[in-house]
Amino acid sequence: MAGPDVIAQVYHTTNSTVVHAVGSVYTTADDTQFQTVLGCGFARPTAWSSIVVTGATAGIPGTWTPTGANPPDKFANMTGLTASPATAWTTGQYVLLDDASKAYWNGTAWVAGTAP
């Protein structure tokens, strides 16, 4: 299933054969690619979603729930979000916030950075 449309903010590729110039609009392959290009600052959504973020799912990077929700703008706004799984995330897992910082769930609370 294709992900949301984005506008390239910097010249980048999404694989070895697809190049995106600054200002180009393209459809991401899936939610993982969308979260990756958004979190790395490579692209921005063509329109910010009105879907309110309620949680995050572990990954490298993880994804926000529900699909299409905007990530929190900073770590301080992680309070109240549900982590999936609810147990401590494993080594290297994190989610990318809108300010390009990272956060992970340690089993009891959100922590800034990448899971150790």
Summary, kept brief:
This protein has 116 residues and is mostly beta strands. It is built from one helix and eleven strands; from the N terminus they run E-E-E-E-H-E-E-E-E-E-E-E.
SSE layout and pairing:
Elements: E1 5-8, E2 12-15, E3 18-20, E4 25-27, H1 31-39, E5 43-45, E6 55-57, E7 63-65, E8 82-84, E9 95-96, E10 102-105, E11 110-112
Parallel strand pairs: 6-8
Antiparallel strand pairs: 1-4, 1-5, 2-3, 6-7, 9-10, 10-11
Write structural notes for this entry.
This protein has 116 residues and is mainly beta. The chain folds into two domains: 5-45; 55-112, no CATH class. The chain is 8% helix and 30% strand. The protein is built from one helix and eleven strands, in the order ββββαβββββββ. The strands form four sheets. It has a three-stranded antiparallel beta sheet, covered by helices on one side. A three-stranded mixed beta sheet has the order 7-6-8. Strands 9-10-11 form a three-stranded antiparallel beta sheet. β10 and β11 form a beta hairpin.
The assigned structural class equals mainly beta
Largest sheet, in brief, is: 3 strands, antiparallel
Average pLDDT? 87
Strand content: 25-35%
Runs in which pLDDT lies below 50 for 5 or more consecutive residues are none
Intertermini distance: 32 Å
| CA-based shape | globular
Helix content: under 10%
**In order across it, which strands form the biggest sheet?**
4-1-5
Question: Number of DSSP helices?
Answer: 1
Report the order of strands and helices. Answer: EEEEHEEEEEEE
Q: Radius of gyration, Cα only, in angstroms? A: 14 Å
How many strand elements?
11
Task: List the domain count as a whole number.
Answer: 2
